Amino acid sequence: MITDLTKGKPSSLLWRFTLPLLISIIFQQMYNICDSMIAGNFVGSTPLEGELALAAVGASYPVTMLFIQVANGINSGCAVVISQLFGAKEYVRMKTAVSTSIIATLTIAVFLTAAGLFCCEPIMTALNTDENIFGDSVLYLQIYIGGLIFLFLYNVCTGIFTALGDSKTPLIFLIASSVGNIILDLIMVIPLQMGVAGVAWATFIAQGASAVLAAVTLFFRLKKITTTHRSPKFSPHMLRTISRIAIPTICQQSFVSVGNLFIQGLVNDMGAAVLAGYSAAIKLNTFAVNIMACISNGISSFTAQNIGAGKHERVPKGYKAGIVFTVICLIPFLVCYLIFADNMIGLFSKEPSAEALRTGASFLHAAAPFYIVLGIKLLSDGVLRGAGAMRSFMAATFSDLLLRVILAYILVPHMGFGGFLWAWPIGWGLSAMMSFWFYFRGNWKNTAFSDSLGKANK
Q1: Could you tell me if 122 and 252 are in contact, meaning their C-beta atoms sit under 8 angstroms apart?
Q2: How remote is the C-alpha of 296 from its chain's centroid?
């Protein structure tokens, strides 16, 4: 159902709109976590074989996250333009923005698939991947990259649904995809004994089915929005307009993932046990961070529609509601990660080694206390992105990346894994101060609707 976020009580609207997005993220992260849990518990016949499988999936995880973040960047960038056009009731241009976004996204996906398949082994070599897990890591990555076109198609469709105020339809597809992925994981790993490859193929199939269904549903949903005349299917002018928002968002998302690749290279040098513990912890950490990012995406759509409609005064009300929502959603993570960290890490392997358990739990203990600060930072970034204030948005997000990577390279040689435990929260804290400053300074107010959309031709 398409929802106009420019009318009604901002807090109620935001909660109703964002809740299905949150449930979607929960299911998405659950099947990502289940991939690792199934690999760690059911691949091989000994605990060591399971731990190596978990490490193999974990070693390629930052690379897969790079592709996911590029897809998310396209999703968020396209959604801002489409949201603003929808808020302004410019439906002809909005439909052109939708079709242009899909065509550009699929083109990028094809290019990245070809480049990614060619570079799998060099990438894993550059990351200092342990020889005991190198083959499985490369195989997992190759299968995953083969399905990038589905990943990108699903993400752009989700972004368009969200831009139109429909957060329930993507939820339905994601629940079906998540359940299907887990079932396929179990079938391919246990009775079929396909090992790490089975985990990758399960994701490929489930992701492909959800992408096709989402695209077909979007096509029929858009046909119901009537316009005075036909909209062009592709517009170079609209592509440039979308690029003004999408490219900085893609750069932000991908640069953060590139930074994580550098960090992964440091972790890979510490041995399979540390890598297994870190892999489990980073999946749990990503779960919490993606919940915060989901609320940030919700506030972006809310901000974009209201700025498109000229209702700037509603944005701070949505921002305050988002803070309350973020704190409430983070409470379960704080409890689980601070009190039951050992139990959470232990879920990823039949008999985790003491070193893997200690590594994963220490990371969660260091990161979790800073989640609320990070969550409010991401909300501030969401307002900036939704308003089209991309310079401020990029400055705030790149500072987080640079600080974490630089601190990791400085501290790890002297402190070992403990260097990571300082690098992440310090990077989050310092970059959060910049995001707060940009928001309260009112940078988002200085970006007019016409500046965000440019001068695209109708």
Answers
A1: no
A2: 11
> What span, in angstroms and rounded, lies between the C-alpha atoms of 48 and 46?
5
Regions of the chain short of the pLDDT cut 50: 448-458
Please say whether the beta carbons of 260 and 69 come within 8 A. no
Show the CA angle centred on residue 285, arms to residues 24 and 181, nearest 5°.
Answer: 40
Q: Among 241, 231, 227, which residue's Cα sits nearest to residue 456?
A: 241
Q: What is the pLDDT of residue 32?
A: 67
User: CA separation (Å) from 164 to 81, 272, 369, 379?
Assistant: 11, 45, 35, 20
Helix axis angle, 272-308 to 47-87, nearest 10°: 10
| CB neighbours of residue 368 within 10 Å | 22
pTM as predicted: 0.65
Look at residue 337 in the predicted model and tell me its pLDDT.
92
